């Protein structure tokens, strides 16, 4: 069993932390909003006053937060994890979905201190994390680094992919998420068109999911949209979709790819956010595309 520092207290971090505790690890957690950590503390986790304090004596450090800004706050600066005097060779792992530029900066900063950095963004929502069924997209310069992390992340996942050197895990996650966003936006538009054509949208949602257009996204979000019953609290918000699609579009543009449908999907969620629905469930995009939200 290991001494683990976990940075972040959101829904994903809560679920992952719970799995690590259940596996018998000694867990110290930090989050800016301390109240969010109570469920983990009740299960045996210890809290720290800063990321720097959290990583003291840690064998491995994990981080799961919302975006580049939150990740930077965890790792950098006088109270950041990288200022905590971690011994050379310590594993530091980012689960967050971040931009390639920040991954490069963070990984370089970690390597300068002799640390082993691995990017391990995940596919799946908090319920999948709680069940240990996430899919992990690993980026590691040395396969041995990912192998060293595997005993810990195996408790939260059903599959671990080594996609290449540091940065490729994040790059693939952005491409993966952009493909998912495109499916959801296409579904919302398709259901809006079906309704406008006089077709029952519950029937349309079922038919989309049953045919070659079907996917887990279409099955799940089609039901939410057709029945007007959305996740509460949201598993994925419009703000989250806009952030991920923005990072994904920037990645593809940097690679010389023209993100035609990706850019359109990003614009759709930007419109939802501009209507004051940034904190709403991503499936409520249907209301905007179908003209049910005109404010």
Structure commentary:
The chain has a six-stranded parallel β-sheet with strand order 3-2-1-4-5-6, sandwiched between helices. It has a three-stranded mixed β-sheet with strand order 7-8-9. Helix 8 (168-196) crosses helix 11 (238-254). The relative contact order is 0.10. The chain has 13 helices and nine strands. With 295 residues, the chain is of the alpha/beta class. Helix 7 links the parallel strand 8 and strand 9 (157-164). The chain is globular and about 65 Å long. The model has no long low-confidence stretch (mean pLDDT 95). It is 51% helix and 14% strand. The protein has helices at residues 11-22, 38-42, 51-54, 68-75, 100-112, 126-130, 143-153, 168-196, 201-210, 216-227, 238-254, 260-277, 285-289; strands at 3-7, 26-30, 46-47, 60-63, 91-94, 116-119, 122-123, 134-139, 157-164. The longest helix has 29 residues, at 168-196.
Q: Quick gist of this model?
A:
With 295 residues, the chain is α/β, with parallel strands linked by helices. The protein contains 13 helices and nine strands.
Blueprint of the fold:
Elements lengths: L2 E5 L3 H12 L3 E5 L7 H5 L3 E2 L3 H4 L5 E4 L4 H8 L15 E4 L5 H13 L3 E4 L2 E2 L2 H5 L3 E6 L3 H11 L3 E8 L3 H29 L4 H10 L5 H12 L10 H17 L5 H18 L7 H5 L6
Parallel strand pairs: 1-2, 1-4, 2-3, 4-5, 5-6, 8-9
Antiparallel strand pairs: 7-8
Helix pairs in contact: 8-9, 8-10, 8-11, 8-12, 9-10, 11-12
Essential attributes:
295 residues; alpha/beta; 6-stranded parallel β-sheet; 14% strand
Helix content: 40-55%
State the total count of DSSP E strands. Answer: 9
The span between the termini is: 54 Å
Beta fraction: 5-15%
Largest sheet: 6 strands, parallel
Helix-strand topology string: EHEHEHEHEHEEHEHEHHHHHH
Q: Identify the strand order in the major beta sheet.
A: 3-2-1-4-5-6
Would you tell me the overall average pLDDT?
95
The shape, in one word, is globular
Q: In DSSP terms, counting alpha (H) and pi (I) runs of 4 or more, how many helices?
A: 13
